[in-house]
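Design a sequence for this backbone.
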C-alpha cells in the first residue's frame, strides 16, 4: 500500500514539471530553423500560468486520507473516519497539485514592424522588459518566445521617487 501511494505521489510531482520558460527548449525543437520577427515592447504585465491538473493529487490525497482516517477508533468509527479522511485528503491533494502547477509568468505585448500587435506569455526568467525595448519573436513548431534583440544593451532609466 505504501508503495502505491509513493508511486501516485511521484507521478503527481513529475506531472508538475512542465514549464513555459523561454530558456527551456524541447529536444524536438533543437537544431530546427525558427522564424524570427523584429518587434518593440508595448507593455508587460505579470500573470500566472495554471498548469494542467492530472487528478493525481486528488487521488493520492484521497488514498492517504482514507487510510489515515480509517485507523481512528473501532470498526464503525474507522469507516466514518476513512470516508471523512478520504474526502479531506482529496480536497487537500487537489489544492496541493494546483499550487505546485502554478508558474509566475509575464504577458509581453509587442508591436511588429508592420504595425501588427502580438501578445506572448512566457515564464519569468530574470529578463526585464520595458516598453520601447527592441525584441525578436522566435517561433518554432507553433511556440513563440520573446528575446531581447541582438546587440540590445539595457538603458539606465531613472527610478521615479516613491
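Sequence:
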Amino acid at each position: 500500500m505504501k508503495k502505491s501511494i509513493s508511486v501516485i505521489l511521484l507521478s503527481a510531482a513529475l506531472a508538475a514539471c512542465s514549464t513555459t520558460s523561454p530558456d527551456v527548449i524541447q529536444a524536438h525543437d533543437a537544431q530546427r530553423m525558427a522564424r524570427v520577427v523584429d518587434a518593440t515592447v508595448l507593455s508587460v504585465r505579470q500573470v500566472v500560468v495554471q498548469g494542467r491538473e492530472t487528478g493525481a493529487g486528488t487521488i493520492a490525497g484521497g488514498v492517504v486520507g482514507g487510510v489515515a482516517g480509517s485507523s481512528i477508533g473501532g470498526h464503525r468509527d474507522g469507516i466514518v473516519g476513512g470516508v471523512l479522511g478520504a474526502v479531506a485528503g482529496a480536497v487537500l491533494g487537489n489544492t496541493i497539485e494546483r499550487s505546485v502547477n502554478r508558474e509566475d509568468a509575464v504577458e509581453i505585448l509587442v508591436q511588429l514592424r508592420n504595425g501588427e500587435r502580438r501578445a506572448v506569455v512566457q515564464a519569468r526568467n530574470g529578463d526585464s522588459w520595458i516598453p520601447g525595448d527592441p525584441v525578436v519573436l522566435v517561433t518554432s513548431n507553433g511556440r513563440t518566445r520573446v528575446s531581447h534583440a541582438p546587440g540590445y544593451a539595457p538603458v539606465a532609466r531613472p527610478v521615479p521617487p516613491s
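Helices lie at 2-15, 56-70, 75-100.
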